[in-house]
Write a structure and sequence with these properties.
Layout (H helix, E strand, L loop, with lengths): L1 H8 L5 H23 L5 H35 L13 H13 L3 E5 L1 H11 L6 E5 L10 H6 L5 H9 L4 H8 L13 H13 L2 H11 L5 E4 L6 E6 L4 E2 L5 H7 L4 E7 L9 H6 L3 E4 L4 H9 L4 H7 L3 E5 L14 H12 L6 E5 L5 H9 L16 E5 L2 E4 L2 E4 L1 H18 L6 H31 L1 H4 L8 H47 L2 H17 L1
């Protein structure tokens, strides 16, 4: 009985159809029994009985259809971990999503750090055919105790990408980042032990990472850009070479200079197996966002990577950073980021650049200003040969400005759909499914944005009155500066007016005093001076 009550209280949306079937059976039985027990039936009674029987029969059929449909939905739903809202699903959409994922575009994402993981988290909702090419470098930093003990490569970015492509991100993240607190394993992370075990089983790190795609039930796959021991160095504008990645921002700030060029050591690092092949087979190649000089460009300096990108027929997209990075991209604009990539790799590496124009509350920008960061200036007219797309990509997460995974992903997928349309493939199943999925995601994102705007207006009603709909955060940034300049000018104007008034008053007073003196006789002047002298003596 207890088990029945628990089942009855569950919200699997099956009980309503069972109830409909039961009601249908009752109606059908009632109608049938009426026919059997009646000796004489009038036309009116016949009509009523038939109506009841038909209602019952139709209810049974509909109940069976929808019960079967809901059973399939539950089965498919239980295997689809990518659905954000499982309360509003149907069989059509679930099966559709499965088809979209399997037949989705082949997308390669190149980078490292938080930016790479953001893109992966969004794109995995559109396709299963994802490849993350990840930075792997010790950055010149001292290895952790666990790495020294286990003699491992620095797989931090690889681990984070695996988490981003996992169907159950939170659980996998907790598992891989778990640090043992006692015993002989004290100070070791589970990920260190896991990768070491996989290496021992498979013979090398390459196979261990590839096999992890299956073991951890990942969507897509993660490939390190190289398996060679790689060090990232920076040549500064003054000729100084920083050999430790961790000290690059510090030394740049200390010497009040900028980065001229990024170097890797050894310079002939070979790409890991599968890297070049993934790039060649890609429908779309995404570069960034992320630390320009330490996570993005180093991947492009590996032998054969840049060449493969240039030769690929895929769409090449660069996702611009929203904020500058102290010690790396101080005062950098969108064109500065792109020119840095072009300077290192040459032309033909980027076809499209997507940059953010969403609104951000000024208070968050000011917080970044205090840390030496600022909005990336949108001077897109300074770069030729690249198409620019402005999109609302930003969000606030943990009081920080971040790229929204779903908005970044939808922008990339929109480009792919437009390219398929350009190739006259808009009638192909791949395009139709992808475009339908995109429209649905855009609708969901629009609803989310509207809800966020309403929440912001409620929390910052007075401050948000200064904002006008349609203005970019970049214009808002400079409107504050303009207002400050106007205020300073107004203060200076008022001060000048006061000074003029004071000068005029002093002149009038002096003139009045002179006139008074001129009108007095010498005897009167002498008496006044003697009086002042006597008063001073008394004091």
């Amino acid at each position: 009985m207890k088990g029945f009550m628990q089942w009855f209280k569950s919200s699997n949306k099956m009980k309503r159809w069972m109830l409909l079937i039961l009601v249908g059976i009752l109606f059908a039985c009632y109608g049938l029994s009426k026919i059997l027990v009646m000796k004489e039936i009038s036309f009116k009674e016949v009509t009523g009985v038939i109506t009841v029987f038909v209602i019952g029969f139709v209810s049974i059929v509909l109940g069976l259809i929808f019960l079967n449909k809901r059973t399939l939905e539950v089965l498919i739903e239980s295997t689809d971990e990518r659905m954000e809202n499982k309360d509003n699903v149907n069989l059509k959409s679930l099966i559709f999503n499965k088809t979209v994922y399997d037949k989705g575009p082949n997308i390669v994402v190149i980078g490292g750090g938080t930016g790479l993981n953001t893109v992966l988290s969004g794109l995995k909702n559109y396709t299963n055919n994802l490849t993350a090419i990840v930075t792997i470098s010790d950055y010149g930093e001292s290895a952790s105790n666990s790495r020294k003990e286990l003699q491992m490569l620095p797989l931090g970015d690889v681990k984070d990408s695996i988490v981003s492509l996992s169907e159950k991100e939170e659980q996998i993240e907790k598992l891989l980042n778990y640090e043992f607190k006692s015993g002989r394993l004290n100070g070791l992370n589970f990920s260190d032990i896991y990768f070491l075990a996989m290496k021992e089983i498979n013979g090398n790190f390459e196979d261990s990472i590839i096999k992890s795609n299956e073991v951890l039930n990942m969507i897509g796959k993660v490939i390190p850009v190289t398996l060679d021991e790689m060090k990232i160095m920076a040549e500064l504008a003054n000729g100084y070479v920083v050999e430790e990645r961790a000290r690059i921002p510090e030394i740049v700030s200390e010497k009040v200079t900028k980065i001229n060029r990024i170097l890797i050591s050894p310079s002939n690092c070979k790409p890991a197996p599968g890297v070049v092949e993934a790039i060649k087979n890609a429908d779309c190649i995404v570069i960034g966002p992320g630390s320009l000089y330490t996570n993005v460009i180093p991947n492009l300096l590996i032998n054969g990577v840049t060449k493969a990108i240039k030769e690929s027929t895929a769409i090449k997209v660069y996702i611009s950073n929203i904020m500058t990075e102290p010690g790396q991209t101080d005062n950098y604009s969108v064109s500065d980021h792109l020119n840095a990539i072009i300077d290192h790799c040459g032309n033909g590496i980027v076809d499209y650049c997507i940059y953010d124009t969403g609104e951000i509350i000024p208070e968050f920008i000011k917080r970044y200003n205090l840390e030496g960061q600022d909005l990336v200036e949108q001077d897109i007219q300074k770069v030729k040969g690249i198409k620019f797309l402005q999109r609302d990509l930003s969000m606030i997460k943990d009081e920080r400005i971040r790229h929204d995974p779903s908005l970044v992903a939808s922008s990339i997928i929109e480009l792919i759909c437009d390219d398929l349309k350009y190739q006259d493939k808009q009638n192909e199943p791949q395009y139709l499914m992808l475009n339908t999925k995109l429209r649905e995601e855009k609708r969901i994102n629009k609803v989310k944005k509207n809800m966020e705007k309403k929440a912001k207006k409620g929390a910052h009603s007075k401050k948000d009155d200064n904002y006008k709909k349609g203005k970019s955060k970049f214009s808002d940034k400079y409107s504050d500066r303009i207002a400050s300049i106007k205020e300073a000018d107004e203060k200076a104007r008022k001060k000048n007016e006061i000074n003029k008034k004071n000068k005029k008053s002093n002149k009038e007073q002096a003139k009045t005093s002179k006139e008074k003196i001129d009108n007095k006789t010498p005897q009167q002047i002498r008496e006044e001076m003697l009086k002042k002298l006597d008063d001073s003596k008394l004091k």
